[in-house]
Amino acid sequence: MHGHELSPSTIAVGAGRPDRVPGGPLNAPITLASALVPGGGSEYGRQGNPTWDSFEAVLGALEGGRALAFSSGVAASAALFDLVPIGAAVVAPRHAYYGTIAQLVERDRRGQVELRLVDIDDTEQVITACQGAALVWIESPTNPALEIADIAAIARAATQAGAAVAVDNTFATPLRQKPLELGADFVVHSASKLLSGHSDVILGAIVTDDDRAFAALEKRRTVLGAIPGAMETWLAVRGMRTLHVRLDRAEANAVELHRRLSASRHVTYSRYPGFGTIIAFEVAAGPAAAQKMTEQSDVITYATSLGGVESTWERRRRHPGEPESVPEGLIRLSVGIEDVEDLWIDIQNVLAAVS
Fold first, then answer.
1. 283 and 143 both lie in a single domain
2. Which range is the signal sequence, renumbered to this chain (predicted)?
3. Based on the domain organization, do 214 and 252 belong to the same domain?
C-alpha cells in the first residue's frame, strides 16, 4: 500500500511485528515455551519459537534473504562449515575473527577441510585460491586489521569456480553493506554486536536467499541444538529497532576520532575503513604502553567485545591466537554513541599518561 520500496531504517523499525488486530500487542511477545501445540510450524522448542520468527523477519528483510537465528555467531559459522564436504578446501582471511579461524584450523588439523589463508584485500590472491575450493569465507572489514574485500569480484570468481561464498557482515551491518546483492550466498552475523547493540546478548545468525541451503542450515541448527533463547532474540529485535540511529551516531564519532588520532604524535597510524564504528590504531610508545592505556581510561571501557552503545577498546595481541602479522601495539577501538569530545579527552589523557 505504501507504493515504494521502504528504506532500511523503516524496515528496522517496522519488520517482524505482529499483525495489527484490536487489542493485540505492538511488539512480538517473548514466548517462553519448550513445547508448542502440534499443527503449526513446530511443536518442540528446539525446532522453532515465535520470538525467533520476529528476529529472523527483521534481519532477513534488511539483508534481502531468509534468516536463521543461532545461539551465537560461532554456532552459526559452525553450522555453515558443517555443510562443507569432507576434505574440501575453504578459503578464509588471514586476519579474521579468532573464533572463526580457530574452527577452521581445528577442522584442517583433523582433515575435515583444507584451509587456505589469504590476504582478503588482495583480490587476485583470493581469486587464485578459489580454484577447487568449496567455500570462500569473507570478512570485510576484517577483525582487527580492518581490511576491505572486493566482495563482488571475489563472489563472481568463486561462483565461476564452483565455490559458495559466505560474508561475515558483523562490522558493516546490512545498513552499510548487503553481501547477497553483491553475489554472496550466505551472510553471517554475530548479532551480539551492532545488531543488538547493548552488550547484553549472545546471538548469531545466517541469512541466505537459497531455499535448499536454508533448509540444510535449519536442519543443522535443530540436530546440533545450536538454538537461541527467546529472551536473546527478543532483546536483539528491540536493539535492531534503533540500529540506524545508533550506527549513524557512532559512525560520526568514529570518523572524527580517526581524524584526530591520525594527527596525534603519540599514534603511529590509525586505520578506519570509511564506514562503521571500529578504529584500529597503534601507539607509538609500544605494546606495554598500549596495554596500560586501555586499562586506565575513564570513559572508554576496557573490554573484548564491540558494537555496543558504549565505547570499548583492547590491545589485540594480548590474545594468544592472534596472528603474528597483527602489531603487538594495535588497539581496536569500538566507538559508541557518547559525546565525541568526552571520548577524545579520555583518549588524550591516557595517551599523554603512557607516552
1. no
2. none
3. no
Which residues are CB-contacts of 206 (< 8 A; sequence separation ≥ 6)? 67, 68, 70, 76, 79, 80, 186, 187, 188, 189, 217
Domain C-terminal end among 240, 268, 303: 240
pTM of the model: 0.95
Whether the CB-CB separation of 144 and 95 falls below 8 Å is answered with yes
> Same domain for 258 and 158?
no
Q: Rg (Cα) of the chain, in Å, rounded?
A: 21
Q: What is the pLDDT of residues 300-354, one digit of tens each?
A: 999 998 999 999 999 987 777 777 788 899 999 999 999 999 999 999 999 999 9
Domain interval for residue 232: 8-240
Dihedral sign, CA of 207, 212, 213, 217?
positive
What is d(CA 305, CA 310) in angstroms, rounded to the nearest whole number? Answer: 10
The residue from 183, 208, 240 where one domain ends is: 240
Q: 161: helix, coil or strand?
A: coil
**Which residue's C-alpha cell is 594495535?**
330
The domain that holds 217 is classified in CATH as 3.40.640.10
With the C-alpha atoms ordered 149, 153, 159, 160, is the resulting torsion angle positive or negative?
negative
Number of domains in the chain: 2
Residues in the chain, total? 355
